[in-house]
């Protein structure tokens, strides 16, 4: 999610103009993003292929700095990238849902327990059902199952300690393989437009 101003901490993908597998050329519009007071078109700065969309259109607000999609240089890189980043967790094995983890991460962000960068990284892992993150979340309820205590029983410090390690070992190598669109492409200011009145 691109940073447009210090006041805008969250954004929402309103519409994807390219889909997974599509080739995008320099200057192409990748997606439309809505902020509180305006919306923008996110343009490409170099030729790439969309390997994976990480934030579906209309999926709610995400923190600035969060990756919106993964880009690869060659079309033949799409398959290997998807295979390496396929969902890992079997939600039937846990007493919580993807939404529970994402809600917890957003609560931590709003409570200033984590910064926007880490929140975006953890939300990305949660969306991809990262098994290590699920196991860390499941094991952070002071020895009890999630279903017994709900979110109130979460040992936040223990969860964050593990989550930071998972981010280092999981996302750092992936960022070398692909280019997060939110970080690689900055929209041109002249393409900003006022958001529609509700």
From TrEMBL:
GO terms for cellular component: mitochondrion; pyruvate dehydrogenase complex. GO terms for biological process: pyruvate decarboxylation to acetyl-CoA. Residues 171-198 are annotated as: Disordered. Residues 1-72 form the Lipoyl-binding domain. InterPro entries: Biotin_lipoyl, E2/Pdx1, Single_hybrid_motif. It comes from the Eukaryota. Transmembrane segments: none annotated. It holds the Pfam family Biotin_lipoyl. This is Lipoyl-binding domain-containing protein.
């Amino acid at each position: 999610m691109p940073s447009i101003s210090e006041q805008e901490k969250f954004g929402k993908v309103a519409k994807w103009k390219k889909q997974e597998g599509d080739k995008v050329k320099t200057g192409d519009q990748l997606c439309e993003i809505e902020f509180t007071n305006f919306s923008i078109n996110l343009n490409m700065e170099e030729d790439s292929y969309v390997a994976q969309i990480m934030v579906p259109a209309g999926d709610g607000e995400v923190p600035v700095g969060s990756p919106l999609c993964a880009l690869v240089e060659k079309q033949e890189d799409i398959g290997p990238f998807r295979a390496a980043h396929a969902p890992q967790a079997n939600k039937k094995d846990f007493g919580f849902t993807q939404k529970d983890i994402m809600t917890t991460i957003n609560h931590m962000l709003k409570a200033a327990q984590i910064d926007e960068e880490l929140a975006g990284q953890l939300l990305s892992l949660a969306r991809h059902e990262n098994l290590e993150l699920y196991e860390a979340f499941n094991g952070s309820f002071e020895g009890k199952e999630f279903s017994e205590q709900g979110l109130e029983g979460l040992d936040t410090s223990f969860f964050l300690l593990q989550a930071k390690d998972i981010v280092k070992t999981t996302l750092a190598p992936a960022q070398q393989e692909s280019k997060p669109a939110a970080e690689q492409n900055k929209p041109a200011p002249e393409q900003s437009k006022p958001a529609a009145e509700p």
